[in-house]
Design goal:
The protein is of the alpha+beta class. The protein has helices at 2-17, 119-129, 186-207; strands at residues 24-29, 31-33, 50-54, 59-66, 73-74, 81-95, 100-108, 112-116, 152-156, 159-166, 173-181. The strands form two sheets. Strands 2, 3, 4, 6, 8 and 11 form a six-stranded mixed β-sheet that branches. The protein has a five-stranded antiparallel β-sheet with strand order 1-7-10-9-5, with no helix packed on it. 32% of the residues are buried.
């Protein structure tokens, strides 16, 4: 009984003290990585560059539709699907001036499992993925739109590459939500291992 209690304590400490380590690891091109902002509403992050940030980590995602469900793939020949399970969530946001053309890459620590860029799909997961950020839920044309015919989103392993343009004078949002494979925190894994060792040693002591 004491062994079980000690293991439970280790697991509790791991969950509280060690956040997940999965994240955006690097960005390239006209992308700036930031912490989750208070607001992603129109006008809050207006710029000539895109922004990328981490959302919920180790999120137990219910079945939700995604616009890209296979990896590698791209928005030129998208394969829609449904994604569920333990994931890490990330967001890419452009609120640019009309006439801007933005290209960039975002690299993640885990493999990309699915991407949402359609308005309705983004709306479905805003509340689930948010860490406090206000999103433009239900705003028309908030997601990725291929305004020029040359704009795209492409995923390969743990890298997302994109080209966005903002030619509409009314709505200039381009938004993408990326779900990656969850990476357990090293601290939590270590404590679980310690708990396992405690059980083994306890059993050996009883046998002796």
């Amino acid at each position: 009984m004491k062994t079980i209690s000690a293991l439970s304590l280790c697991l509790s400490v791991a969950a509280v003290a060690f956040p997940a380590s999965a994240s955006i690891t690097s960005v390239g091109g006209l992308v700036t990585q930031i912490g989750a902002p208070p607001s992603a509403l129109p006008g809050a992050l207006s710029s000539f560059n895109a922004w990328a940030w981490d959302e919920q980590q180790n999120l137990l995602l219910p079945p939700v539709p995604v616009d890209l469900s296979t990896n590698p793939s791209n928005s030129g020949a998208p394969v829609a699907g449904v994604l569920a399970g333990l994931v890490d969530s990330h967001f890419i946001h452009l609120d640019g001036q009309p006439g801007a053309f933005i290209t960039g890459t975002v690299t993640f620590s885990g493999a990309i499992l699915g991407v949402q860029y359609g308005d309705a799909n983004l709306d479905l997961t805003d509340a689930l993925a948010s860490t406090g950020t206000l999103y433009p839920t239900l705003t028309p044309l908030r997601g990725f739109n291929n305004w020029t015919g040359a704009d795209f989103i492409s995923i390969n392993a743990n890298v997302l590459t994109f080209q966005f343009s903002t030619i509409s004078p009314a709505v200039n949002l381009e938004e993408v939500r990326v779900f990656t494979r969850a990476v357990p925190s090293p601290g939590a894994a270590a404590l679980v291992g310690m708990g396992g060792l405690m059980i083994v040693r306890r059993r050996r002591a009883k046998r002796a």
